[in-house]
Structure formats: C-alpha cells, structure tokens
Design brief:
Elements: H1 4-14, E1 18-20, H2 29-33, H3 41-44, H4 61-73, E2 77-81, H5 84-94, E3 102-106, H6 111-119, E4 123-127, E5 131-132, E6 137-138, H7 143-152, E7 158-162, E8 169-170, H8 173-182, E9 186-190, H9 207-210, E10 214-217, H10 219-222, E11 230-234, H11 241-251, H12 258-294, E12 300-301, E13 314-315, E14 319-323, H13 331-342, E15 344-346, E16 348-349, E17 353-357, H14 364-384, H15 407-412, E18 415-419, E19 433-435, H16 450-461, E20 465-467, E21 476-480
Parallel strand pairs: 1-15, 3-4, 7-9, 9-10
Antiparallel strand pairs: 2-11, 5-6, 8-13, 10-11, 12-14, 14-17, 16-17, 18-21, 19-20
Helix pairs in contact: 4-12, 5-6, 5-11, 7-8, 12-14, 13-14
The chain binds pyridoxal-5'-phosphate.
C-alpha cells in the first residue's frame, strides 16, 4: 500500500526497538501488562452522536470521567485535552490575563509558554534558571528568584514555572507556591513531564499538592494515554474557570477524538487502581539501572546527589539522564550509537547527555539492554581514545538582552535577514535557543548585542544545536524591519 505514514509506523513497530521515549504506554505494553483491551480503536472512532458526550460542553460520560480524574489527581476541576499540554498552557495563561499584562516566566520555558505571550499580547518577565555545571543543563528556579521577581514587578498577574524540567529536575515548588500566594498572585505550572508524580511517595511532590492554582500535564508522556492527550487541572477559587474553558474551546478542534479522550480515562483508571505498585517496580528498576550505569568508567548517570545544588529541590528518579563527557563523546553521538548498534531509542540527546524516559509501560529487559549497551559503548569509545577537546562549551546567558518591543509585536512586524555582524543593535525577529542548556539567547523583540553573537559563535564552534533559528548554518539572523524606535507598548 502506498501509505507512507502507516508504513513508517509499522516499520518502527516491527523493529522491536527498546522505547525509552514517550508515549508512556510504551508501544501498548502497559495495556498488555494489565490485560486491558484497547486495540479496537478503529471501531471505536466516532463523533458526538446520541450517547457520546461533547468535550466542549460535557454533560455525561466526559463529565463523569473528568470528575473521576479531578478526584484522583487532587484537583477541584479537570479538563481533558486532545491538543496536548500545548493547548492547556495557552489556555491557562490566556485564561488569567488580559492583553498588555505582565507575567513572570522561566527563561527556559517550553515554546508553548512563549507562544502564549504572543497569542495573549503579554509582557514576559523572565527568571533565568540555575545551570548545573556537570551536566550543563538548566535545572530549576529558586523561591528567592521568584520572590525577587514579584517584588520588582508587583503588576505581574501570575507566575509560570516548568516543573519538572525535561531532565527531571524540580524546583522547591511548595515554597514557590507559598510566596506567589503571599503576593496575591496565581501559580500556573507546566507539569508536562510530571503527570505520574501524584502516585508515589518517592517521586517529587505534584504541583497540585504543592498548592499550584492551574496545572497542565502531558498524560501521554509519562502515563498511559495516547499521544497528544493531556489534562488541565484547577485547584483554586481565584481562577475564572468559565474563561479558562472558553480558551480551551478556542485552542482545540470542534471534532475531538473520543479515542484520545477514552485513553485519558484509561490512564486515570490505571493509576487509580494500580499506579503505586506499577511505579514501585519502575522506580526499583531505575534505581538499579542508575547504580549499574555509574559503575561504568566514563559515564555518569544523574543521581539524587544533585539535589541541593542549582535550585534542585527534588529529582524525578524515573528519568535516566546520562552524561558522556567522561568519554569525550556527545550525547547525540551516544544516542545514534545506541540506536544503530543496540536498537535502543532514547527520548532526547544534547551535546553532552541523553535522556531516557522510563514509565509504567517498561519492563526489566529494557533496562538490562540499556546497561549492557552502555558497557559496550564505554569499552568501544575508551579503546578508540577519541582525542576530542574535553572543554565543554558553557553558554552563559546571564544577562537578558534589552526588550525593545513585546514578542508579539516583533512577530507581526515584517523582517529581513542580515549577516550576524550587521545585526548588532537591531531588534531580533526570531527565538534562538541552544540545547543545552535550553535557555534562549534572544527572544523576538529583544535587541541583538555582542554577547548574543559571541554565544551564537560558541554554538557554531562546538556543534551545539540551536532551535528556532531560521538559518541552520547560524551565519544570518532574522531582524525586525524598523531600524529605529520601540514597539507601541514598551
Ligand atoms: C516542558 C514542556 N512543556 C510543554 C510541552 C508541550 O507538551 P505537549 O507535547 O503535550 O503539547 C512539552 C513537550 O515536550 C514540554 O517538554
């Protein structure tokens, strides 16, 4: 059949790859493990006929399922989403702000948060997260940073934090929630990677338990629902849920997939009925794996010893973050090697680390294969005695470039492409984010300066991946077309 997408998916399924990546059901493993029948998807695919509820005005089955989820996750109200955490983040931010409002956000936030700045015509006030010098990743923000931002910006409507980060590092979210509330503001949490936190005492505190007002989670990433299905939870009497629902309607299709909605219901059921035991097994497997990996010369697996440094208050121990600096190879190279030589696919890699996502869908055999493969990888690369420089490129975007106009203003302006050297003093028309550490060097609307160019050059020399930049060779940059003057709002 000439069906390229289906063919590609079948090929991947048949490859028997070890899936250390999302979605959390792990190629359907969790359904097999628990003997849950959910493979008649085509027959179940339908629309809002009689007896099937309406996501945008739920009255029967969806309402009941959302109420069950609210109870299990610890929310006052839960909204099921079929456009990922992305749409939940748009809606939760737009739902508590008006155009022109200021909002405090981490500089390393996911692009859905910056997207909300554009959609909502908001002014971002950034907090720069702490960076771990060993792994070279951005980690967490501290309660002191949040308090300082609130003191200096009393007009801010809310604080957004990303908790955990992609690497599983968590801020002291309870203290942050207390501080935010003591200033009479709302705490919104991007908990895309933490939907499993509420179900085991050895995992970091969940944002709802810590006191967040609105939390959006990618149920599909760490629990068992289908890709793109998420939940937005509210636990606050200060949130206008009608406004939030309005924006959720706006951000999602009028033809939601009831299969995705059913998968959210199943994900809740699994965690309610057996979440604790399933997580217990996975946590034990992750702990053994971490110990075994740390016995391998040249490889370091992130451990709880990092707690207490760089704002890290807790760590998600189901996230296996492995650093290869000791072998002088990049995470990207290790990622490729694991895939090609051992059929193991990890979630992400950067210039120093790989991140393997483990969930309740995993089995011990996966971890065994990872440990075995890493032992071999270390042997191969130690023998090859790669003579790469051991100097790590540390990008320090300690100062944020001056904002000349709001991100949305810059995005709507016409732009031109300039050689980097000619761009100094011009207003940037794009987002430039090096990975690692995942902190933007510059955002749309900010003025390009020498430090930004120096950092772009560091990325170029060290093969650090840059997201967002329109020219992958990093020789040119997109700038806003008006040479002088600021935006209308600033
Ligand atoms: C930190 C963070 N927030 C939000 C999102 C968006 O989640 P989704 O893919 O469910 O839309 C992601 C996706 O990777 C993410 O890493």
């Amino acid at each position: 059949m000439n069906t390229p997408i289906l063919n590609a998916l079948r090929k991947y399924k048949d490859s028997n790859t070890v899936p250390f990546h999302v979605p959390g059901h792990k190629m359907g493993n969790i359904f097999k493990k628990l003997n849950i029948k959910f493979d008649d998807l085509i027959e179940l695919d339908t629309t809002e006929v009689e007896g099937i509820d309406n996501l945008h005005a739920p009255e029967t089955s969806i309402k009941e399922a959302e109420e069950l989820a609210a109870k299990v996750f610890g929310a006052d109200q839960t909204f099921f989403l079929i456009n990922g955490t992305t749409c939940g983040i748009y809606a939760m931010i737009l739902g508590v702000t008006e155009a022109g409002d200021s909002i405090i956000i981490p500089r390393n936030c996911h692009k859905s948060v910056t997207g909300a700045m554009i959609l909502g015509r908001l002014k971002p006030i950034y907090i720069i997260p702490e960076i771990d010098d060993v792994l070279n990743i951005s980690c967490a923000i501290t309660p002191i940073q949040v308090e300082e931002a609130l003191k200096q910006n009393p007009q801010a409507k809310a604080v957004v934090i990303t908790n955990p980060t992609y690497y599983g590092t968590c801020s002291d979210i309870k203290s942050i929630a207390d501080i935010v509330h003591s200033y009479g503001k709302l705490l919104l949490v991007d908990e895309a990677h933490g939907a499993h936190f509420a179900f085991h005492e050895k995992l970091p505190i969940s944002a709802l338990k810590a006191g967040a007002d609105i939390v959006t989670q990618s149920t599909h990433k760490t629990l068992a629902s289908l890709t793109g299905s998420s939940m937005c939870h509210v636990k606050s009497n200060k949130v206008d849920t009608a406004k939030l629902r309005f924006f959720l309607k706006l951000m999602q299709t009028t033809s939601p997939s009831h299969i995705m909605l059913a998968s959210l219901d199943i994900a809740r059921y699994i965690m309610e009925s057996s979440g604790q035991e399933l997580l217990n097994d996975i946590i034990n497997m992750c702990n053994i794996t971490r110990i075994e990996i740390n016995k391998i010369d040249g490889i370091y697996c992130m451990n709880i010893e990092r707690i207490g440094s760089n704002g890290i208050h807790e760590i998600d121990i189901t996230r296996i973050v492995i650093n290869f600096s000791g072998l002088n190879i990049s995470g990207t190279e290790a990622d490729k090697w694991l895939r090609e030589k051992h059929n193991i696919q990890v979630e992400l890699s950067d210039s120093q680390n790989i991140v393997a996502v483990s969930t309740i869908g995993d089995q011990w055999e996966y971890f065994e294969r990872l440990i075995k493969a890493l032992k071999e990888l270390a042997k191969v690369y130690r023998a090859s005695n790669k003579n790469m420089s051991n100097d790590k490129a540390y990008l320090r975007a300690d100062s944020i470039p001056e904002m000349a106009m709001l991100p949305y203003e810059a995005i709507y302006k016409s732009t031109e492409i300039l050689e980097l050297k000619a761009s100094i003093g011009r207003i940037c028309g794009e987002i430039i984010i090096p990975y690692p550490p995942g902190i933007p060097l510059i955002m749309p609307g900010e003025i390009i300066n020498e430090e930004v160019l120096k950092n772009i050059n560091t990325c170029l020399i060290n093969h650090i991946k840059i997201n967002g930049i329109s020219d992958n060779t990093m020789r040119t940059i997109k700038v806003v077309n008006n040479k002088k003057g600021k935006g209308n709002i600033l």
